[in-house]
Task: structure prediction
Amino acid sequence: MKQSEIKALISLLDDEDYEVLNHVETKIRSMGDTVIPYLEDRWEESSLSPLMQKKLEDLIHDLQYNAFFDRLQNWRNNNSDDLLEGMWAIATYQYPELSLEKLRQDVEQIYYEVWLEMRENMHPMDQIKTLNSVIFGKLKFGANTKHFHSASNSMLNIVIDLKKGNPISLCVIYLLVAQKLNLPIWGVNLPNLFILTYKSGNMQFYINVFNRGLVFSRVDIDNYIAQYNFPQNEIFYQPCNNLDIIRRVLRNLTLAFEKVGDDDKVKEIEKALQEMMRD
Result:
C-alpha cells in the first residue's frame, strides 16, 4: 500500500461503525510491524483522545510482540545454529528496533580484543586465562549481583552496554567469542547456575563465567549437586545446544517479570517459551 493509503486506513481507527473498525484493525494487523512507524506518527498527534491513544498503543504493542514471536519461530526453524540471532530475537521483545548487525558488531569487537592476545599453540588453560584477562580484566565484564533478577540481564545488547549480566548472558558472550576463536567450548545446564565446558578428546573441564571464569572439575559439579540434593543427571556435565540456551533465557525472563508483578509480560514470554518447547 502507498503511504497515503496507510495513513487513510489508520485515520479510520476512530470510526464509530464497529464493522468498519473491525475491518480496519484486521487489515492493519495483517500488514505486520512495517506499519508501526505510521501508527507511532498518528499517536504523536496532540488532538487524539485518550481512548484513541490507548487503541494505538495496544495495536503497536501487539504488532511488536507478533514480530518478536515470528523472529523466535524463524530462528528455531531455520537458524538455530546461530546463537547470537536467537539472543537478538529475545532482545527485540524489549527493544524492537534493535539491529542484529549492530549486535554482531559489538560481539565482533569483543572477539577482536581477545584475538589480539591469543597466540598459536596455547595450552587450553592459557586460552581460558587469556579470555578471562580480556573479558573480565580489560573489558570489565562482571556479575550483576545487585540486580540479579532484572529483565535487562536477558537483553544481550544491555549486558554488552552495561558490562553486567547474569550467569547465562555472560556465558553467551564468552561462548560466542570462544567459538569465533574455534575453541571447543559449550554451554552446560546446571540447576540454578549456567556454566561452560571445554571439551576436546579426553580433556574436559568447566568454566564458571559468573565467577570471572573460574575453572573447576567434574568433582566440583558432584559436590555442587550433592550440596543442594539435586538428583544425578548427565545433562549437568555435558554440552547443551542453542535451543536449550534460548529456553533458559526465556525462563529467566519470565522469572524477572514475575518478580515485578508484570503478569501480562509473564504470559507473553510463557507463550514464546511454549513455542520453543514444542517437539
User: Anything to note?
Assistant: Residues 3-78 form one domain. The mean pLDDT is 94.
